[in-house]
């Protein structure tokens, strides 16, 4: 009898451990109820109401082409930040969709920025060439500064993760995992752009 129970006990303990590790601030906010949205799929989507957003994210980093980018560069417009690395299968699967959405919103109130968490410049550039990605990525493997800046919004090792930042640089929405429905990300971006228009019209 004890031999049969031992594997079950071990599985139960592992499940509890994983449940504890999966907790993160945005998920906790959602479980507490209220006005945040949640869509379950291959990746979960969390939307954060205006009143519940934290402080603007401040960051600085160097891209695969050696250019410095900072959080102040895109203030006033929506910024989509995607955490990825070249050998990540879900990252490869979503790359074309992200580039397509980036092209849709180019000069349309939103821009994209990648954060490569594992690769050096040659691998990142090769990835961009393979998937025709035109938006830049900060190389974060050496310093981890970008991951630290966004640590309140992304769980450790959650790659890919895509964040939508509002015009003030605050996290407005998050897709945890692969973007499997481009239309959802498009809607999140459009809604966040619309917020700025609404705020301007009411001032």
UniProtKB/TrEMBL annotation:
<keyword id="KW-1015">Disulfide bond</keyword>
<keyword id="KW-0735">Signal-anchor</keyword>
<keyword id="KW-0732">Signal</keyword>
<feature type="domain" description="Thioredoxin">
    <location>
        <begin position="48"/>
        <end position="198"/>
    </location>
</feature>
<dbReference type="Pfam" id="PF00578">
    <property type="entry name" value="AhpC-TSA"/>
</dbReference>
<keyword id="KW-0676">Redox-active center</keyword>
<dbReference type="GO" id="GO:0016209">
    <property type="term" value="F:antioxidant activity"/>
</dbReference>
<protein>
    <submittedName>
        <fullName>TlpA family protein disulfide reductase</fullName>
    </submittedName>
</protein>
<dbReference type="InterPro" id="IPR013766">
    <property type="entry name" value="Thioredoxin_domain"/>
</dbReference>
<dbReference type="InterPro" id="IPR050553">
    <property type="entry name" value="Thioredoxin_ResA/DsbE_sf"/>
</dbReference>
<feature type="signal peptide">
    <location>
        <begin position="1"/>
        <end position="27"/>
    </location>
</feature>
<dbReference type="InterPro" id="IPR000866">
    <property type="entry name" value="AhpC/TSA"/>
</dbReference>
<dbReference type="InterPro" id="IPR036249">
    <property type="entry name" value="Thioredoxin-like_sf"/>
</dbReference>
<dbReference type="GO" id="GO:0016491">
    <property type="term" value="F:oxidoreductase activity"/>
</dbReference>
<keyword id="KW-0812">Transmembrane</keyword>
<dbReference type="GO" id="GO:0017004">
    <property type="term" value="P:cytochrome complex assembly"/>
</dbReference>
<dbReference type="GO" id="GO:0030313">
    <property type="term" value="C:cell envelope"/>
</dbReference>
<keyword id="KW-0201">Cytochrome c-type biogenesis</keyword>
